Fold this sequence. Notes:
The chain is mostly beta strands. The chain has one domain (5-127). The protein has one helix at 121-128; strands spanning 5-16, 21-24, 27-41, 82-93, 98-101, 104-118. It has a two-stranded parallel ribbon. Strands 2-5 form a two-stranded parallel ribbon. The protein has a two-stranded parallel ribbon with strand order 3-6. The longest helix has 8 residues, at 121-128. It is elongated and about 65 Å long.
Amino acid sequence: MEKRTARVHQAKVISLINSSIFEIGDATEAYLAARVLAVQKEGATFTDEEFPYSDFPIFRVELPRFDERPVINQTHTPCCPYIDVGTVDILGIASSSLFQIGNIDTIEGEARIKHFRILREENHKDMER
């Protein structure tokens, strides 16, 4: 990896959550992971034990992996030793995401999200009308 200097005038990020990275500069590796279980349960309280990850297939499935890196024959002609960035405005970076100004050799990301709502029975009847 050819290294360059990242020069950033201004960066504004409102929200950065769930195993995400905002990086200025070079990196060799980035490994991102997020396992999110979002439950909205109307009219009751509950504990974390009520919804274990193992109950949901999305969290048990093994993700496919590449056995080897693809070989790409290429030639780089550096025109400038700098990466110049004026202004970056980002509302949000979420769920195993990477925003990077610079170079990276290897990146591996994973996000598994299960979101559901548990509504009271009378609301189901109202929705059928």
